[in-house]
Specification:
Elements lengths: L20 H12 L6 H169 L6 H76 L9 H74 L5 H12 L7 H27 L7 H105 L2 H6 L1 H23 L6
Helix pairs in contact: 1-9, 2-3, 2-5, 2-6, 2-7, 2-9, 3-4, 4-6
Length: about 575
């Protein structure tokens, strides 16, 4: 803007709040006052200047507040946006973690179910295994008891066999002695028969010499004729006795061989029973110490039992064979030989008694008539004496009778020893006692074998239940392992899902915190913006302390200017 000629250009400098503002304004008005022509222009200029100053003051007061509120509003909106993004990311991560957590929970639940099923099967298998082990232990106990009874029976059988051997030996000795006595009795009977023949010849010669001796000679002839069949009977009995003794001797030999074989079988059965009992004891101890061990681990123990059972079976076969040999030898050799020996002994005994009676009658009845006719029958008596006494070439009646008596004595001794071999004595048992003990041992062995078979059956049942329990336990352990694997997998998934869920929750919390902070900032900026905006209304501007602080001096200044302008006199042109 240009001024009139003769005036100076004035650039108003007004600083709001300066102490020299009134002085400057007075100088400015004085510079304007001399020219009344420009008064209106000066008033307009002053008014516009005041309006400009007021506008500047207004914008200086309120623009900073609005800008500050807008900045805080923008910052709050940015933070709210960041919080919303973080909240969205946290929610997505939490959603993924929740899915994984659900999957892990499902897998965990399935694994827990399979684990429970496996535990039930394992419990069933363990119970079955325990029952099988108890049955196995019971069967092993029965097997051990049966083996003990079998061993006792075998020992008794061995003792009976020993007694049977002693009795058989005594029987063989008595048989040999009886055979020797029977042979001597047979020889004596033969000599007696020869002497009786010679005596008959002498008697026939003496008949011609003496009639008085006729009766005695007749009696002698009668006695002689009768004694010959008795001698034959005695010889027959001796022959039967010899044959029976020979058969009895052969039977005793076979009986001794059978006894040896029976003894060997008894020893083998005893060893097999001992091995079987030891293997059974080891098996029971191992099963009690290791109740959960599978059947394969018991194979060595079962092999030991099988070996012991094989040895016991072989021993029982030997026992059976030896018993058969004993029975055959007793039936075909010993019994017939004993019967033949007994029959022959009876015949020999009867012949001996008859011969003894005939000799007694011969001495009592025949010698009395001969003594009466001694003087008349010298030649006959000499011949009779030769028949009685005999000669070196021809034995006589007395020699045969003595030999017959000796043979009879020997035969009686053999029969007594034979009886002792059969019946036995108080010190040493005989054949009958040995046979009784043998029967007792066989009965005990049979009972032991029955208990052994029962124990083997229980052992087999226990082994079957043990195998079944082991199989069930194996299935249960497999299910248990599978369930544990699924449980471990589900726990891993559960942990991973929980970790992701925790991460998502942390992000969600951070985003929520950022969102809350941004919302706070946004609210604060909005509040300041609202306060600044509301301050721009006419009512708020009129009541604002800042506006009053600026407007009041301006109004005072305007009043002073108006008063100065009104107080100056008007000039004409």
């Amino acid at each position: 803007m240009t001024s009139a000629p003769g005036t100076r250009s004035i650039r108003p400098r007004l600083v709001i709040g300066s102490p020299d503002s009134r002085t400057d304004l007075s100088h400015m008005l004085r510079s304007i006052a001399p020219t009344s022509h420009h008064r209106l222009h000066a008033v307009v200029t002053v008014f516009l200047s005041l309006l400009l100053v007021a506008l500047l003051a207004f914008f200086a007061l309120f623009t900073g507040k609005v800008a500050n509120g807008a900045g805080q509003l923008s910052e709050g909106a940015g933070r709210a946006n960041d919080g919303s993004a973080a909240l969205s990311a946290g929610a997505a991560s939490a959603r993924d973690g929740s899915k994984k957590l659900a999957e892990g929970t499902a897998s965990l639940d399935k694994g827990t179910g399979e684990l429970s099923s496996g535990l039930k099967k394992a419990g069933t298998g363990a119970a079955s295994l325990s029952t099988g082990a108890a049955d196995l232990n019971e069967g092993a106990g029965s097997l051990s008891a049966g083996a003990g009874a079998a061993a006792t029976g075998a020992a008794e059988l061995h003792a009976g066999t020993a007694r049977l051997t002693v009795g058989a030996q005594k029987l063989a000795d008595g048989t040999a002695q009886a055979q020797a006595g029977a042979q001597r009795a047979a020889d004596g009977a033969s000599r007696l028969a020869a002497g009786a023949g010679q005596l008959a010849a002498g008697t026939r010669a003496a008949l011609e010499g003496s009639a008085a001796l006729g009766t005695g000679v007749s009696d002698i002839m009668a006695e002689t004729e009768v004694s010959i069949p008795d001698a034959a009977l005695l010889a027959e009995g001796a022959a039967k006795t010899a044959a029976g003794a020979a058969a009895l001797r052969d039977g005793a030999v076979e009986l001794d061989a059978g006894v040896d074989r029976l003894n060997a079988g008894t020893i083998q059965a005893r060893d097999g029973s001992a091995q079987l009992a030891a293997g059974t004891h080891d098996l029971v101890a191992f099963a009690e110490a290791n109740p959960l061990v599978p059947v394969g681990a018991l194979l060595e123990k079962l092999k030991t039992l099988d070996a012991g059972a094989g040895g016991l079976n072989a021993g029982l076969v030997e026992l059976s064979t030896g018993s058969g040999n004993l029975a055959l030898a007793t039936e075909h050799k010993v019994v017939p030989g004993t019967q033949a020996l007994a029959n022959g002994t009876v015949l020999v005994h009867e012949g001996t008694l008859k011969s003894q009676a005939k000799l007694n009658r011969l001495y009592t009845e025949g010698l009395t008539p001969l003594k009466a006719g001694t003087d008349k029958l010298t030649a006959g008596m000499q011949q009779l004496d030769a028949g009685f006494q005999g000669s070196p070439d021809q034995p006589g009646l007395l020699s045969g009778a003595g030999q017959l008596a000796a043979g009879t004595t020997a035969l009686n001794g053999g029969l007594m020893q034979l009886n002792a071999g059969y019946q036995g004595t108080a010190v040493e048992p005989g054949l009958l006692a040995g046979a009784g003990r043998l029967n007792e041992g066989a009965a005990a062995l049979s009972g032991g074998n029955a208990r052994l078979a029962e124990g083997a059956l229980k052992l087999a049942e226990g082994s079957t239940q043990l195998a079944s329990g082991t199989s069930s336990l194996k299935d249960g352990m497999g299910k248990l392992t599978e369930g544990a694997a699924r449980l471990d997998t589900g726990a891993g998934d559960l942990n991973a899902g929980a970790a992701q869920l925790a991460d998502g929750n942390a992000k969600l919390a951070d985003g929520a915190a950022q969102l809350a902070e941004g919302n706070g900032k946004l609210a604060e900026g909005t509040e300041r913006m609202s306060a600044s905006t509301s301050a721009m209304t006419p009512a708020s501007v009129a009541t604002s302390p800042g506006i009053l602080a600026v407007a009041l001096p301006l109004l005072i200044l305007a009043a002073l200017v108006a008063m100065m302008l009104a107080s100056r006199p008007r000039r004409s042109h």
